[in-house]
Design brief:
With about 325 residues, this protein is α+β, with helices and mostly antiparallel strands. The chain has 9 helices and 8 strands.
């Protein structure tokens, strides 16, 4: 079960902690300083900090002595406020059991328990201050924090990837579809299955796709360009992995555009030993290519695309750059 923040939530929390650690100094932090402290991609940093400003948790000031600063003391800001600044209100958006029998028209057997669990999580986050996280972060940075027995194993290996696919639709149409849909886990699952078939591993247990999302983040400098965060987490018999990268949609002409992705695949094996660089890189590229093709196909088949006949309805993969 996935209990982690989205990638946007991750970046907002890191940025809030960085501002909390700098609060006592009284000097606003520049975007470049927040990026250096948090490793939040610079492309997205202004959008992430804007989430804190919109939530009233930070203030910004332009000019040579300007930057970003928390609007209140870190001890007066709860972790819940930071989480909700990125993720929205902490509440169940749908029935915990999904589509149940028709007699469950108003409530399901799990409703009260799930509601109470959500309320307790919100209570815990509301009772934890940003100052506590900042203090813990400083101790971890100093190497003096004891590693919890349930600590998550770090990813042992990383591969940098880039690829693109051409979509026979105008860029604004593609941007509209991507903006309306966040979850692309089906595309990832299908891509991994196809790669498994090519590798002769179709008989293995199916992969567990934790999530795959495409989140709009920023308008780029070039006309018609919009940037997105593409991220996913994956668990397979060979180990766990996650990917995060920047996806951009660029106009080619009035009827076509390109989706370009550049990012990093992190992987480790079940025994903590990563695959060889060559094998991991080849497989990671195949999965990324498969995801891009699937996303392009689903965008072209989306109800939000133009009527049939106005543009071609196929996509063409382009060699990895």
């Amino acid at each position: 079960m996935n209990m982690t923040l989205s990638k946007r939530g991750d970046y907002v929390m890191r940025s809030a902690i960085a501002l909390a650690r700098a609060f006592e100094g009284g000097k606003p932090r520049k975007i470049r300083e927040v990026v250096a402290d948090t490793e939040v991609p610079r492309t997205f940093a202004s959008q992430i900090l804007a989430d804190l400003v919109r939530a009233g948790l930070a203030v910004s000031r332009a000019g040579r002595d300007g930057g970003y600063r928390l609007s209140r003391s870190p001890g007066e800001i709860s972790v819940l406020e930071v989480v909700e600044a990125a993720e929205g209100p902490l509440r169940a958006e749908r029935c915990a059991l999904g589509e149940g029998p028709c007699r469950w028209e108003a409530v399901c057997p799990l409703h009260e328990t799930w509601t109470e669990a959500t309320a307790r999580l919100a209570e815990l986050l509301a009772g934890t201050s940003l100052a506590e996280l900042a203090a813990r972060d400083a101790v971890i940075e100093a190497g003096e924090y004891p590693v919890p027995v349930d600590a998550h194993r770090s990813y042992a290996h990383a591969v940098t990837l880039s690829d693109l696919v051409q979509v026979e639709l105008p860029a604004p149409v593609v941007q509209r579809v991507l903006g309306a849909r966040r979850n692309w886990s089906t595309a990832l699952g299908a891509a991994v299955h196809e790669v498994g078939e090519l590798e002769g591993a179709a008989s293995r247990p199916p992969p567990l796709v934790a999530d795959c999302s495409i989140e709009p983040l920023a308008a780029g400098g070039a006309a018609g360009t919009v940037s997105y965060l593409l991220a996913w987490r994956l668990s397979e018999p060979g180990g766990r992995s996650h990917f995060e990268g920047e996806l951009s949609v660029d106009s080619v002409d009035a009827d076509r555009c390109e989706m370009t992705v550049s990012g990093t695949w992190h992987q480790d094996g079940d025994d903590g030993t990563p695959a060889t660089t060559e094998a991991l890189g080849a497989r990671a590229r195949r999965v990324l290519r498969g995801v891009l093709r699937r996303v392009a196909r689903e965008v072209e088949e989306s109800p939000q695309r133009p009527a049939e006949g106005s543009v071609a309805s196929r996509s063409r993969s382009v060699a990895s750059r």
